[in-house]
Design a protein that fits this description.
The complex is a heterodimer of chains A (408) and B (287).
Chain A (H helix, E strand, L loop, with lengths): L1 H8 L6 H8 L9 H23 L15 H13 L2 H11 L9 H22 L20 H28 L2 H9 L1 H21 L17 H27 L6 H35 L9 H27 L2 H25 L13 H24 L8 H4 L3
Helix pairs in contact in A: 3-14, 4-6, 4-13, 5-6, 5-9, 5-10, 6-7, 6-14, 7-8, 7-9, 9-10, 10-11, 10-13, 11-12, 11-13, 12-13
Chain B lengths: L4 H14 L19 E6 L8 H9 L24 E7 L2 E7 L8 H5 L5 E3 L5 E3 L9 H5 L6 E2 L8 E2 L5 H5 L5 H5 L5 E5 H14 L19 E4 L19 H29 L2 H8 L1
Parallel strand pairs in B: 1-9
Antiparallel strand pairs in B: 1-8, 2-3, 4-5, 6-7
The chains are: A mainly alpha (408), B alpha+beta (287).
């Protein structure tokens, strides 16, 4: 808060470079449990990434000719993007449906979504064998428009830009640029509409990626409705992440949050739990329809069939009931439990499609190496570091400076 | 595509003359582009498992010399250094040898999957890969129903490797190395239409020898490489449950939906925004 006040007071003499230099210095304590755990992993991850680019993808991963996409795609990208879905759902609620009571968590959610996309698209680069050609589908005459991945790649890029625009008023407030703030705030609605459209298409697009792998994915998980399944589940995956992440950030950065927002956070979480419950009901219903129509009953006695039941009952039906219950009882604790179970369920579901159920009948199965897991953790930790850096500097959780408050 | 008019006619000429039917008139272009896809007909009843094709392939594509020989019950897989392999299968009609390589699908899943058009179906028929465009995402490998494209996992500059139907040789007016060197005449090169003709002829003339099935005629929407066999194909390591329509068809519906969503969603969202705009005003008044 103090920073922005100083800036407003001394506007004419304000030097942006001096300000940035000051802001880039680390804030807060260095020796914290989180830092002590995350730093070695990030360092190890960096070493592994260097080895990967030097010796090839096979030197750190267990990928095979039969299973060319492992957890770097199945978890980092496919699951990570589902979790980042909270941003489009919330901007839809707040900016399109004008549900103002959720406004206080929009910024942190959009920031989370934006960073998720930056880092998961970044993780995608690690998985590319020839990353120097990554711009080919964007520029030049190499438009593979018949490819779902082409659509997904473009949407990642465009959605990142849309999210950056949605978030940019916060940056303008941080550096105290009133004119930019005014212009950027004016672009929010357009960015939100564009962003929701893009999200609809690429959340479902991630499912559509696997449509051509018809013979490789276990029939209990493969259906022509994969895109719709991925889209519907991204709604409650994203919101569960918002609930989970909110419960942590509101604790860790509690000094940033005003009394009023602390108070309203409970009703926000309760409201979100209701939306989750309804979306999960729709998702479960869709799954039952697909299951019955596909006449897959005979699979239920196989190990994969039992695993399918575990997913549907343990990670969809039960968290759905928990969400309904938590809404009825207005129990925040129950909502948080439901959110965590749902998130585990989303990880299970995405991995079932991309890794576990992919070539399930092959002689040798793919398991990630410890190195793939370390790199994944390093990506997540780096994202959290950046997230913390932004939260501590920009008015994300705390109230915007007074000069910016009436402009939107 | 690196093939000019002259070499194309050379190619057609070679395709025509290598056929037993031999009538070049049959090979006359008939479709819009004026080109018919070329392909290969592999007759497993003729193959003797001598592996000459493997050796010719390795030499022609500058690959390491291949090891091992076909043994029933032991599948030698394709990999980034083997574009074609011959495997042996024990069947009711004795040991049968099957040559495996890229099927060069008429509507190739790998090409449809490629977001940079690095993997592409040439006008002539072979499905080939262009390293200048490829970003190494391996979506072609995920999509290919025959699991043909292979990736060099242990290279810092990895390539996608697979049979190209010797496209470079075709451009020079030659035929694929495996087809040229097969001593048993088990591999025949020609346009797909001629090969289907020939395959049907063989089935009709020798009903006791062949099963009435040309693998690749309809599988995955039709492939450039066609197979004949004396026993049902599922006993020879072929996936006979592949769909008869092409694989790109599977994601077509989704891709066709994209423009509609792009037009309808913003309009719908803007409408919702306008409709709910006053909510805020009203609630604050009530407060």
């Amino acid at each position: 808060m103090s920073n922005t006040e100083i800036i407003t007071a001394q506007q004419p003499a304000f030097n942006i470079w001096k300000f940035l230099k000051e802001e880039f210095k680390p804030k807060g304590k260095w020796v914290t449990p989180f830092n002590m755990i995350s730093l070695p992993i990030m360092f190890l991850g960096l070493v592994l990434i260097i080895i990967r680019f030097w010796k090839g993808i096979g030197s750190v991963t267990n990928l095979t000719q039969e299973v060319p996409w492992g957890i770097w795609i199945g978890f980092d990208v496919v699951t990570g993007v589902a979790f980042a879905g909270g941003a489009y759902v919330l901007t839809f609620m707040v900016y399109i449906l004008n549900m103002k009571q959720y406004h206080s968590i929009v910024r942190v959610t959009v920031l989370n979504g934006f960073l998720a996309y930056v880092f998961y698209a970044g993780a995608l680069l690690l998985d590319l064998g020839r990353p120097w050609n990554v711009i080919n589908p964007i520029i030049g005459n190499n438009f593979g428009t018949s490819s779902v991945l082409f659509l997904v790649a473009w949407h990642f890029l465009l959605y990142m830009i849309a999210q950056l625009i949605e978030f940019s008023p916060t940056i303008a407030e941080w550096i105290g640029h009133r004119r930019a703030h005014k212009i950027l705030s004016g672009m929010t609605l357009a960015a939100v509409i564009f962003g929701i459209t893009l999200s609809t298409l690429h959340q479902s697009g991630l499912g559509a990626l696997y449509l051509m792998a018809k013979d490789k994915i276990h029939p209990l998980w493969y259906s022509e409705f994969l895109p719709i399944m991925f889209f519907v589940s991204s709604i409650f995956a994203g919101l569960s992440m918002v609930i989970f992440e909110g419960s942590i950030t509101y604790k860790v950065f509690s000094d940033q949050v005003t009394e009023k927002n602390h108070h309203s956070h409970h009703s926000i979480i309760t409201g979100l739990s209701k939306i989750c419950a309804v979306a999960m009901f729709a998702y479960l219903f869709l799954n039952v329809l697909v299951f019955v129509h596909g006449r897959h009953f005979h699979y239920l006695t196989t190990p994969m069939g039992r695993w399918y039941l575990v997913e549907m009952v343990g990670f969809v039906l039960i968290p759905m009931l928990l969400f309904f219950n938590s809404y009825r009882k207005k129990s925040i604790q129950l909502t948080k439990i439901a959110a965590v179970v749902t998130m585990v369920g989303i990880i299970v579901n995405r991995l079932n499609v991309t890794v576990i159920g992919f070539k399930w009948d092959a002689v040798s199965h793919y398991y990630p190496t410890w190195m793939e897991i370390v790199v994944t953790l390093a990506v997540i930790f780096t994202e959290i570091w950046i997230f913390r850096w932004v939260i501590l500097r920009m008015p994300v959780l705390r109230e915007p400076p007074t000069w910016a408050q009436n402009s939107h | 595509m690196g093939i000019d008019r002259r070499s194309f006619f050379q190619l057609l000429g070679v395709a025509g003359t290598t056929l037993a039917l031999g009538k070049q008139a049959l090979a006359k272009p008939s479709n819009d582009i004026g080109v018919e896809f070329v392909g290969m007909l592999i007759d497993t009843t003729r193959c003797v498992g001598c592996q000459t094709c493997e050796a010719a392939c390795s030499e022609s594509n500058h690959l390491a010399e291949q090891t091992g020989s076909p043994e029933p019950g032991k599948i030698r897989p394709l990999d980034e250094t083997k574009f074609t392999v011959v495997n042996a299968y024990n069947t009711s009609k004795g040991e049968i040898y099957v040559k495996k390589q890229c099927m060069h699908c008429s509507q190739a899943a790998c090409a449809a999957a490629c977001l940079t058009k690095a993997m592409h179906k040439t006008e002539e028929g072979p499905v080939v890969w262009d390293g200048k465009k490829c970003m190494g995402c391996r979506y072609c490998m995920v999509s290919c129903p025959f699991e043909i494209p292979k990736f060099e996992y242990h290279s810092a500059n990895p390539k996608i490797q697979k049979c190209t139907m010797c496209f470079e040789r075709l451009v020079e007016g030659k035929i694929p190395a495996c087809a040229e060197n097969c001593p048993a005449e088990a591999i025949q090169f020609g346009t797909r239409r001629e090969l289907l003709h020939e395959a049907r002829k063989r089935i009709v003339e020798n009903p006791d020898v062949y099963v009435d099935h040309i693998y690749g005629e309809h599988e995955a929407g039709g492939t450039g490489v066609l197979y004949l066999s004396s026993v049902p194909f599922n006993g020879l390591g072929f996936n006979t449950s592949l769909q008869k329509s092409s694989y790109p068809e599977l994601s077509k519906g989704f891709l066709y939906g994209v423009p509609s969503v792009f037009v309808l969603w913003p309009a719908l969202l803007l409408g919702l925004y306008e409709a709910t705009k006053d909510n805020h005003v009203k609630t604050t008044e009530n407060e």
